[in-house]
Design brief:
The structure holds 3 protein chains of 3 kinds.
Chain A (H helix, E strand, L loop, with lengths): L3 E14 L2 E14 L3 E5 L6 H8 L7 E3 L4 E4 L2 E2 L5 H7 L4 E4 L3 H4 L6 H12 L4 H14 L5 H4 L9 H13 L5 E5 L7 H18 L2 E6 L2 H7 L2 E6 L2 E7 H6 L4 H9 L38 H5 L5 E4 L2 E3 L17 H4 L5
Parallel strand pairs in A: 3-9, 3-10, 7-8, 8-9
Antiparallel strand pairs in A: 1-2, 1-4, 1-5, 5-6, 10-11, 11-13, 12-13
Chain B lengths: L1 H11 L33 H37 L1 H16 L2 H11 L5 H10 L3 H15 L2 H8 L4 H37 L11 H9 L6 H33 L10
Helix pairs in contact in B: 1-10, 2-3, 2-5, 2-6, 2-8, 2-10, 3-6, 6-8, 7-8, 8-9, 8-10, 9-10
Chain C lengths: L10 E13 L6 E15 L4 E5 L6 H8 L7 E6 L2 E2 L5 H10 E4 L13 H11 L5 H14 L16 H13 L5 E5 L7 H18 L2 E6 L2 H7 L2 E6 L2 E7 H6 L4 H9 L51 E4 L2 E3 L8 H12 L1
Parallel strand pairs in C: 3-8, 3-9, 6-7, 7-8
Antiparallel strand pairs in C: 1-2, 1-4, 4-5, 9-10, 10-12, 11-12
Helix pairs in contact in C: 3-4, 3-5, 4-5, 5-6
Classes of the chains: A alpha/beta, B mainly alpha, C alpha/beta.
Chain lengths: ~350, ~260, ~350
């Protein structure tokens, strides 16, 4: 039983702008154990990316992590650390890769230099040593002719190759945790398959934990051990991956799964989730999903649901957990009744 | 900063009906309560002259800029949208024109053409000033041209002139406005310099530049004659730049996303 | 699935090519000739949806735009309703534009930020003089309703809408001129899954109600399988396989199609994926390998030198199913062996 590597507790990240407060992340908690892959799933407006950035304290004004939040990494409270201490951790113990590799890479430096820089910042390796490690890392990411490629510039490479470079940069110091924010969304599906395979292989080799931010349930099923579903700045469902796909509890998760066209199932019409995500500056009272929910009833408007434990390894922020019979009587969600007008 | 701009407006509007040749008696009087800016060697109230001068300086700069902006925008938009050979030829011409220092060109023209009527001065200033703007407009048009909504307009059957006018130009307007405000500041200084040299605004009209010229010999004794117009020029130019900055910021949030939009994930 | 209402196809594309040349410096000599679309031929029947899939650089977007003459093709023929589209000019071209429209991928750049959405939708109506003044406004409102938007929002600007809503506005704009065919260029790729479903349903409903024909370009195979009757797979500017949606997904012939399908992550954890993970990257279109351009990455157990000798033609392998491969499709047994090998 490994103690958790990362423990996020009641994280709240708010953006204060001209009087309005956008509660992008509003009380999010989850764990990541050593070596495991946790996927955070959500759509735009769910707060998943802000959560990832908050962990590395990359949130800038007007955003800030509110008091009462806690992020423990290897037992240490990260929110109390100084900026210098955070810099020691970033790239070294916790690394992050992003969706768009082109904007994360410096166009005027060769890729080898950029990877080597990571090494030199955190260790006292010489230039030569750092370069060697960079080449070694590129080889590990499956790049052909790594020594030659290290002297190339980012714009000379394809999207898939740039993503490999980003992975090399992130992993060169063998971090304990890799945060991957939509790492394959911008890639073609065959390249995505390569990159996912690579990540899994490296994870095994390096004994690394991965926090994967994504909106793609297919990717989640492929690589995740446990899943955290986010909606409206909150965690609405938390489960192991098999539990989640076997029996999704939260109506939003259910809706997401039904809205996806599936390669092996031919349906005439996709079921949609009517309405849109409410703005983070004014979360509705009670359950934030109720206007779009096919099961909502009066309780959902009055009482903000806590994260109920439905089973072992499965929690859901939905009153259906305590009143499961209501699932038998679905109705048209409020958002659909108002017409499709949004 | 915008307050400084507001200061300019009342300068123009309540222009003193006090004629320039004011009281004959007070010659070269230092600034006093009655004459806040003092008087010059012809006993003219410097403040009043400055106010009238403001009208001249500002209108010259304003009109010249309007001409420059109109020419530059049309030229740049056509070059940018047409592309290919037309664009290449048009821009080569602009490149050549930009190689000639504007001040020297103006001095040459104005020196050869003595005693220029005011309206012609404005035209000359305008015509020599549109090149840089056309490059800017062209650059923007080039990138706008590739955007999907332009393709959509073509798909729906819009003709090129229609696309230019209804789709491309409205999106170039913020750039133009910002460039125009900065341009005004630039021309004010330019005109002041030319008038100082005696090439710009001719008497009896006075602009800030010529007032400085009037007081140039007496900078030691009657320093106020040159100082105040000079200060006005500097303040106005800074105010124009500040206005340009403010406008630029005002136009941006509509298009670009602010910190709040980072939350969209 | 087959809504063939007439015998002659509505759209017939023959040997369409579009090349881009990159010049080096100021010289007029071409440094490289990039064949974005290379000798593409297909047809679409009225009321049908042809899906076109492929990865970045395969030329599908270029092809879509070339058919509409938003880009001028370098060679080939496009016939729409029997009319030679590439030969038209002036007023004739303009009236042809009414008949085929396009919906774009990016909800942010597809609408003019300085134009109200009502004006954007109204533009086509005004250009083709389908209605004036009040009538035109009324039409716009009806189009909004049909696209699932509140007609009260016609005087708002694009930045006030969400991505999904902006796509709907794009659809309303395409419909404004009453087209017969719409090229959907990755219309849902930039949207969240739940919003994607809404827009897909909208497109399907409109097709049913108005008898529209779609050329649906996408990289998401699941979406294409859901909406398309027939599917064409493109690779490096060519169509390498084309078949009915059902046949393509159940029995892909081209090794590339097989790899593409197996690369799609399925929402089934623990599923034993007989995965074919393609190695390497697609070749540069400026410098394609000789013969079959897929040869270097191909996993066909019986590929050989012959593959590099000729460019495989698109041939009918089974009724209605065309593929560009000179070899017989690998047998299931061979594929399973391959997958087992890869897993080791």
């Amino acid at each position: 039983m490994s103690e958790s590597l990362l423990r996020v507790n009641d994280l709240r990240t708010y953006f204060h702008d001209a009087g309005a407060i956008a509660r992008a992340v509003d009380g999010v908690s989850f764990d990541v154990a050593r070596g495991e892959t946790v996927a955070v799933v959500g759509e735009s407006g769910s707060g998943k990316s802000v959560t990832a950035l908050s962990i590395l304290r990359l949130i800038r004004n007007p955003g800030r992590i509110e008091a009462g939040s806690s992020i423990l990494f290897e037992g240490r409270e990260m929110l109390g650390l100084s900026e210098k201490e955070m810099r020691d951790i970033r790239g070294n113990r916790i690394a992050m890769i992003f969706q768009e590799p082109m904007s994360a890479l410096n166009p005027v430096l060769t890729v080898g230099e950029q990877i080597a820089e990571v090494v030199r910042v955190h260790t006292d390796a010489s230039r030569h040593e750092a370069w060697e490690r960079a080449v070694e890392m590129l080889a590990l990411t499956g790049m052909s002719d790594p020594r030659e490629r290290a002297t190339a510039y980012p714009h000379e490479m394809s999207g898939g190759m740039r993503q490999r470079v980003m992975i090399a940069m992130a992993l060169v110091l063998r971090p304990a945790l890799l945060i991957a924010d939509e790492p394959t969304t911008a890639l073609d599906v065959t390249i995505q398959a390569q990159i996912l395979e690579l990540l899994q292989k490296l994870q095994e080799q390096l004994g690394m934990a991965v926090l994967l931010i994504t909106h793609d349930l297919g990717v989640v099923a492929e690589v995740a051990d446990r899943v955290v579903v986010m909606y409206g700045g909150e965690v609405v469902e938390r489960a192991t991956v098999t539990e989640l796909f076997d029996s999704p509890q939260h109506p939003y998760t259910e809706g997401l799964m039904n809205a996806m066209p599936r390669l092996d199932q031919k349906t005439a019409r996709l079921t949609t989730i009517p309405g849109i995500v409410p703005p983070s500056t004014s979360w509705p009272g009670g359950c934030r999903f109720r206007d779009r929910c096919a099961y909502a009833w009066e309780r959902c408007e009055m009482e903000h649901p806590p994260l109920y434990a439905v089973r072992e390894n499965h929690e859901s922020r939905c009153h259906l957990a305590v009143e499961p019979d209501r699932r038998q009587s679905p109705h048209e969600p409020l958002a659909a009744r108002a017409g499709a007008h949004q | 900063m915008i307050v400084v701009v507001a200061l300019l407006a009342p300068l123009i509007s309540p222009y003193d009906p006090i004629a320039q040749p004011d009281i004959i008696g007070l010659k070269n009087a230092a600034p006093s309560f009655v004459h806040p800016f003092g008087t010059d060697s012809f006993s003219r109230d410097v403040l009043s002259r400055c106010i009238y001068g403001a009208r001249v300086s500002l209108s010259v700069a304003g009109l010249a800029t309007v001409i420059a902006v109109t020419l530059g925008t049309l030229y740049g938009a056509i070059a940018g949208y047409a592309g290919g050979v037309i664009d290449a030829v048009m821009m080569r011409f602009v490149d050549a024109a930009l190689a000639i220092p504007r001040v020297l060109l103006l001095i040459a023209i104005l020196a050869l053409w003595n005693g220029l009527p005011l309206w012609l001065l404005i035209v000359v200033l305008g015509v020599t000033g549109w090149f840089g703007l056309s490059r800017m407009v062209r650059a923007q048009v080039l990138s706008l041209r590739e955007l999907d909504f332009v393709a959509a307009a073509r798909a729906v059957g819009a003709s090129s002139p229609r696309i230019l006018i209804r789709h491309i130009l409205p999106n170039v307007v913020p750039t133009i406005i910002v460039a125009a405000t900065l341009g005004i500041g630039h021309v004010i200084i330019l005109e002041a310099g030319l008038s100082y040299l005696g090439l710009g605004v001719q008497p009896p009209s006075a602009s800030w530049g010529s007032i400085i010229q009037d007081g140039a010999d007496q900078v030691g004794s009657a320093w106020w004659i040159s100082l105040f117009p000079g200060l006005l020029i500097v303040t106005t130019a800074i105010a124009c730049n500040a206005l340009g900055d403010a406008l630029h910021a005002a136009f941006d949030p509509r298009h670009t996303t602010g910190a709040m939009a980072e939350l969209d994930s | 699935m087959n809504n063939m209402k007439s015998d002659a196809p509505l759209l017939e594309v023959s040997h369409l090519s579009k090349s881009f040349s990159s010049h080096r410096g100021l010289s007029r000599k071409k440094a490289a000739d990039i064949r974005a679309v290379n000798d593409v031929s297909f047809s679409i029947a009225r009321g049908e949806t042809l899906g076109v899939v492929g990865e970045s650089g395969c030329g599908k977007t270029t092809m879509g735009r070339s058919i509409l003459r938003l880009l001028e093709p370098t060679a080939g023929k496009v016939e729409f309703g029997g009319v030679d589209v590439l030969g038209l000019r002036g007023a004739a071209l303009r009236s042809m534009r009414r008949r085929m429209q396009i919906v774009f991928q990016d909800p942010f750049s597809s609408l003019n930020p300085r134009m109200t959405v009502g004006a954007a939708v109204r533009e086509g109506i005004l250009i083709h003089q389908l209605a004036h003044g009040r009538d035109a406004d009324q039409r716009v409102k009806v189009l909004f309703e049909e696209s699932g938007l509140d007609p009260a929002y016609v005087s708002r600007y694009p930045h006030e809408f969400s991505g999904g809503q902006r796509q709907r506005i794009g659809v309303a704009r395409a419909l404004s001129v009453e087209p017969e065919m719409i090229v959907c260029d990755e219309p849902v790729s930039a949207l969240d899954v739940s919003v994607q479903a809404q827009v897909i349903n909208l497109l399907q409903d409109l097709q049913r109600d108005r008898g529209l024909t779609y050329l649906f370009i996408a990289h998401d195979l699941s979406v294409v399988q859901h909406i398309a009757d027939r599917v064409a797979v493109m690779y490096l500017g060519r169509i390498v396989e084309i078949a009915s949606s059902k046949d393509l997904y159940s029995d892909p012939i081209m090794p590339y199609t097989q790899a593409l399908l197996s690369a799609v992550p399925r929402p089934e954890p623990g599923r034993q994926t007989a995965r074919i993970v393609l190695q390497g990257e697609p070749p540069s279109p400026a410098n394609p390998p000789p013969g079959c351009v897929f040869y270097p990455r191909c996993h066909h157990p019986r590929k050989d030198e012959a593959c590099t000798q000729i460019i495989p033609p698109l041939e009918e392998k089974t009724p209605g199913h065309f593929a560009a491969c000179i070899k017989e499709p690998p047998r299931t047994v061979e594929l399973l062996m391959l997958a087992a090998q890869a897993a080791r």
